[in-house]
Specification:
- The chain has a domain at about 340-485: Orthogonal Bundle (Isoleucyl-tRNA Synthetase, Domain 1), CATH 1.10.730.
- The protein is about 50% helix and about 15% strand.
- The protein has helices at about 20-35, 50-60, 65-80, 95-110, 170-180, 185-195, 225-230, 235, 265-275, 310-315, 315-325, 340-365, 380-390, 390-400, 405-425, 430-435, 435-455, 460-470, 505-510; strands at about 1-5, 10, 40-50, 90, 115-125, 130, 140, 145, 155-165, 185, 205, 205, 215, 220-225, 255-260, 285-290, 290-295, 335.
- Helix 1 (about 20-35) links the parallel strand 2 and strand 3.
- Mean pLDDT is about 95; it is low at about 505-510.
- It binds 5'-O-[(L-methionyl)-sulphamoyl]adenosine.
- 5'-O-[(L-methionyl)-sulphamoyl]adenosine binds near residues 22 and 262.
- 5'-O-[(L-methionyl)-sulphamoyl]adenosine binds next to strand 2, helix 1, helix 7 and strand 15.
Length: about 500
């Protein structure tokens, strides 16, 4: 089966920060999970380079917009590399393939009679690239009017093309009703439904007061509204308007992963555009929450913006990937602090996971000549632990399909904790003298359990779990869920044990 997952395309008005890293890492975990599960996966990311906000950022930097976006788009690509993101494609909205596809989409909507020339008069927030009604706004003591997002608004009065969004209200509602999983989490779905039920106004889809955008076909005074341009990336990257390409098999997308701030664009405007173009709508749109930093909103002026490169340099990539998905339930807001990251690392990666591996691997090295022991007759305790581990791929699949990434991690940790309790109870270091065959068997059970744990954690911490599978002697081409049904060969020579997460080495020495 095909599985198409996307990140939002990043605005290039500023450098990447932890919020961008979060969206990308979550999508990467899902893409990697689906690949391990044998699906035909397409994973897209990219940069959103047009619009007033980017034009202004370029001006402030004293650069021509194309030169500016080239520079910042490259920073996002570098971020994806640093984070070990496995995207198959990276689309930039300034690329010819995107401009051609977005133009074709416009023409389709125009030909369908869903775009017409009108007039927009109202408030606009450049920071959000969004329109607001008078009722949405708050006036600050200094007279500035701000949107609910905190972004200052300006009054805009210009001829605009409008998209007949109002005509799609009923179809959208019917789609939501027929597809209860269309939008997640559930609270967001209700928010979207309330918004649609509140009545949809036609949406301004062009701007004529600046130039940095895709020209509206046959009307060079206008550029396309940046959100219509940007949303189209999900299909232009598959070759739209051509629908007979090999890549088109991935449409409709299985999942658009987005932050909660941009849910409405994806869950209301985008499906309406697609319906107007006669195209199927995505299967699911899931919104994650936002990170604050030590309790405060991240902002350049406060100077608390967390750079993902600094974090990775300080703690190692997989600790960062793990922390972001482990610390808060996916879908909720979270607060980042270095203290919380270090504490998760120590208790869960070093003590729970790292320690479990190190404890039995060092015993295999010392007592079994470094050869993977053979399995013997099973006790109830053995069967119970093995069954808990064997259940992981299916239980994780169910959670990944709900984007419950934190719950998926918790499932694995239950088994890791059970593994540590098992080794405490079985005390293989004592069996060495009393019952060597039983010791060998206990170590084998632990190796089999650890193999499953490391395999299901590969999507979360690819490099460290690959190292852990190296330690267990699992061949590189046998790291998938399907391969788990093939037992490891008895007497496989294991490499000398090496700590995966630095602290576990100390712990192991203390205990064994
Ligand atoms: N360009 C639009 C998306 C267009 S998709 C067709 C955009 N870009 S963005 O760069 O501003 O945001 C990209 C993603 O980063 C969004 O999903 C957004 O929610 C996420 N985050 C930005 N700041 C964030 C936090 N502080 N915390 C978590 N995620 C945040 O929106």
């Amino acid at each position: 089966m095909t599985y198409y997952v996307t990140t939002p395309i990043f605005y290039v008005n500023g450098s990447p920060h932890i919020g961008h890293a979060y969206t990308a890492i979550a999508a990467d975990v899902i893409a990697r999970f689906k690949r391990l599960d044998g699906e035909d996966v397409r994973f897209l990311s990219g940069t959103d380079e047009h619009g007033q906000k980017v034009e202004k950022a370029a001006r402030d930097a004293g650069l021509d917009p194309q030169a500016f976006t080239d520079r910042v788009s490259a920073e996002f690509r570098t971020m994806l590399t640093t984070l070990n993101i496995s995207n198959d494609d990276f689309i930039r909205t300034t690329e010819p393939r995107h401009k051609a596809g977005a133009t074709a989409l416009w023409e389709k909507l125009f030909a369908a009679g869903d775009i017409y020339l009108g007039h927009y008069e109202g408030f606009y927030a450049v920071r959000d690239e969004d329109f607001y009604g008078e009722d949405d706004l708050t006036t600050l003591p200094d007279g500035t009017r701000i949107a609910p997002t905190g972004a200052p608004v300006e009054w805009v009065r210009e001829p605009n093309y409008l998209f007949r969004l109002s005509a799609y209200q009923d179809r959208l509602l019917a789609h939501y009703e027929a597809n209860p999983d269309f939008v997640g989490p559930a609270g967001k779905r209700n928010e979207m439904l309330a918004f649609i039920r509140g009545g949809l106004n036609d949406l301004s889809v062009s701007r004529s007061s600046f130039r940095w955008g895709i020209p509206v076909p046959n009307d060079p005074d206008h550029v396309m509204y940046v959100w219509l341009d940007a949303l189209a990336n999900y299909i232009t990257a598959l070759g739209y308007p051509a629908e007979d390409t090999a890549l088109w098999r991935f449409w409709p997308a299985n999942l658009h992963l987005v932050g909660k701030d941009i849910q409405r664009f994806h869950a209301i405007y985008w499906p309406a555009f697609l319906m107007a173009a006669g195209l199927p709508v995505p299967r699911r749109i899931f919104a994650h929450g936002w990170w604050t930093i030590d309790g405060a909103k991240m902002s350049k002026s406060v100077g608390n913006v967390v750079d993902p490169h600094d974090l990775v340099a300080k703690y190692g990539l997989d600790a960062v990937r793990f922390f972001l998905l482990r610390e808060v339930p996916f879908g909720n807001d979270g607060d980042f602090s270095h203290r919380a990251l270090v504490s998760r690392f120590t208790t869960e990666l070093a003590n729970d996971l790292g320690n479990l591996a190190q404890r039995f691997l060092s015993l295999i090295a010392k007592n079994c000549g470094g050869l993977l022991p053979e399995a013997g007759p099973r006790t109830e305790a053995d069967s119970e632990l093995l069954a808990a581990a064997e259940a992981l791929p299916a239980s994780l699949r169910e959670k990944i399909d709900r984007q419950a990434l934190g719950e998926a991690i918790e499932d694995v940790w239950r088994v890791i904790r059970a593994g540590n309790a098992y080794i405490d109870h079985q005390a293989p270091w004592a069996l060495r003298r009393t019952d060597p065959p039983r010791m060998a068997h206990v170590l084998r059970v632990l190796a089999d359990v650890q193999r499953i744990i490391a395999t299901v954690l590969l999507p979360f911490m690819p490099a460290s779990m690959d190292r852990m599978l190296d330690q267990l002697g699992v061949p590189a081409d046998q790291r998938s869920f399907a391969a788990l049904s093939v037992p490891l060969a008895d007497a496989t020579k294991l490499p000398p044990p090496q700590g995966i997460f630095p602290k576990m080495v100390e712990d192991t020495d203390a205990k064994s």
